[in-house]
Predict the structure.
Amino acid sequence: MSAFGTLATPVGVVGVVSDGVAITRVMWRSAPPEGSALPAGPTADPLLAEALAQLAAYFAGTLRRFDVPVDLGVPTVATRAVLTVTGRRARLGCTQPKTPRAR
C-alpha cells in the first residue's frame, strides 16, 4: 500500500503519495486516495517525509528544484500536452505565462 501525506500551503492543502520508491501522485487533497493510507509514523516512509519537506522549502522560497524520484506512470495524450506546455510557459512561482520576447 502507498503512503499519503499532506502539507498546508499558500495554494491549499497539497497531498502527496509515495510507493516507497518514488512519488506517484501530487494533488490538492487532504484525504488519502483509494489504495493509499497515512503512514504509521513520520519515519515510516522516508521518501514521503522528504517530499513533504522539499515542498515546504519550495513554498518557503528556499528551494527551486526537487530531487525526489517521481513516477507518474504513463500519462494520457492530454496530460502529456498540458505538462509540456506548462513546462515551457510557466515561470517559477508565477501563475501568469511567460510573455514572448521581442526579436
Summary: The first strand starts at residue 2 and ends at 9.
